[in-house]
Amino acid sequence: MSGGQQKNAKLIDKDGEEERCKEGEEQTSEKAEEQRCKKGEEQTCQKGEEQTCEKGEEQRCKEGEEQTCQKGEEQTCQKGEEQRCKEPKPKATPAIDWKAKCEREWKLSDKGISTPDSLDWQCIYGKKPFGRNLLKSPNPEGLSTSVPPPQPSELEPPPMQPLEEIGDFSGWQVTTEHIPVDTSGIPPGVVVCYLPNYSWSIKEQCVDLKAEGLWEELLDSYQPDIFILDWYEDSKLDKHVFELHIKLLAEDQKTVIKEFSHAPENKMSGDTKNWICVSHIFKNYGPGVRYIHFLHKSKDLFVVGFHRTRITNSTVFVQLRD
């Protein structure tokens, strides 16, 4: 090879080497750049994701808390507890001393009435045993003593009806006692078209004093007054149209400690039919009373229609003395 050729070959080699170096450097640079990019991207992604996650989590937490609070507040408010949404919970109300409340309102200590701790004073207070009518359905027909008893129609005789169809007699035990027809005053051979056919309508019920809120120490030692009232119609169907029988019974509901009976005789004259009141007060009746048996009888007449003697505003109540 000549000198010129050798020189040209060196130039070519040098140029080729430079191109290879450039290509190698570019490849190396590109590879390094890719590695740096990947590493940088991974780091950036990891850091960015962590930051994004932390930031997103905080936002989600805040949003979730706000949504939860808003939803919880709405649900709470929808339940009628708006006050709890706006204001802090009030302090718990102190427990009521029911025994002290009963003693204070009814002045039990002033009257010397025993008040055992073993009794359920909240239950006793809720039943309000004093001055309350202890009878069930005391006015079954809804009649008022301030208005005269209803008069039968003169055009059509009143029909006979069961009491259950006339009013609400729940709580009463109702029976009928037929009275034999009295023919002793009819002369022999005399024909009578219509004979008066009488019957008693009997209604009764038993009052459990302890179940109504009274207690043994009160009934046995203090013995509060027991008031009885009843109103009956002066129906003029007969001389005797009403009877009242009251018994104060012991625990066995058989032993009679005190009783009261009343069977008035009314005048047959006059056309005015009014209400008549019968009353009685049991005082100092003795220990052991647990029940009150209340029974009244009203006389009915069947002759050319059915005629009744009505009763209303039957009352039994217990009262403390002043």
From TrEMBL:
Residues 1-42, 55-93, 135-157 are annotated as: Disordered. One of its GO terms (biological process) is ERAD pathway. Residues 147-157 have a biased composition (Pro residues). One of its GO terms (molecular function) is ubiquitin protein ligase activity. Pfam families: FBA. Residues 10-42, 55-65, 71-90 have a biased composition (Basic and acidic residues). GO terms for cellular component: cytoplasm; SCF ubiquitin ligase complex. Residues 124-320 form the FBA domain. This is F-box only protein 50 isoform X1. It comes from Microcaecilia unicolor. The gene is NCCRP1.
